[in-house]
C-alpha cells in the first residue's frame, strides 16, 4: 500500500488531486502545492513512491529496463484511485498531477484508467511508450483531458523528444494541452502555477477558483 499524506480542503468538497513526486523526492517536497494552488474546494493527496532512493523514493528503476517498475507502480496507483472511488469520490472528481517520474506515472496511469478522471497534469516528464499507450488505452483515454508542461532548458529530460511524444499522442486522438516554459528541470514559478490552476478549475468544472 502506498504511503500518502492528505491535505484536506478548507471547505467540504469531494474534489481530490493526487500528487506524484519525482525521482528521489517525497511528499515533503510537494507540501507547498496546496497553498500555492489556492483552490479552497480541492483536497490534496500527496503520495510517496514505493521504492527507496537515496533518502527519497522512486516509481521505477533508473537506469535499465524500467517497464516492470512502471507497471507495478501503475497497478498500485490504480488501486489507490479505486480506493478513493470506493469511499464515494466519483472518478470525475479525482485528478492526477506529477513531476518528472511522477509525470510519467500520471500519464501512464491516467490514460489507462478505465474511467475518465477530472484532469491529468504532467510536469517535466516523458511518456514511457507512446505506441503501446495508443494501442492499449481504453476508450476513456480519448475522453481524458491532460496538460503537459516542459522546460526548453531542461537537461535532465530534454524537451524536444517529449514534444514529439506528445504530438504522437495528440495525433492518435488524445486531448493534451502542451506548454513550454523557459525553465530547467523545475516548476516555473507563478506563471506555471497559474496555468495549472486554471486547467484544474476547468477540469473539475469550476467556474472560478473561489467557487465551492
Write out the CATH superfamily name. Answer: Alpha/Beta hydrolase fold, catalytic domain
Helicity, as a percent range: 25-40%
SS content category: alpha/beta
* Beta-strand share of residues: 15-25%
Query: What is the alpha-carbon Rg in Å?
Result: 16 Å
- Order of helices and strands, N to C? EEHEEEHEHEHEHEH
Kindly report the average pLDDT value: 94
- What summary fits the major beta sheet? 7 strands, mixed
Instruction: Give the CA-based shape.
Output: globular
Ends apart, CA distance between termini: 31 Å
CATH level 1 class label? Alpha Beta
CATH architectural designation:
3-Layer(aba) Sandwich
Question: Which topology does CATH recognise?
Answer: Rossmann fold
| Uncertain stretches of 5 or more adjacent residues | 207-212
How would you describe this protein?
This protein has 212 residues and is α/β, with parallel strands linked by helices. The chain has one domain: Rossmann fold. The protein has 6 helices and 9 strands; from the N terminus they run ββαβββαβαβαβαβα. Strand 4 and strand 5 (56-58) form a beta hairpin.
Give keywords.
seven-stranded mixed β-sheet, 6 helices, alpha/beta, 212 residues, two-stranded antiparallel ribbon, 21% strand, Rossmann fold
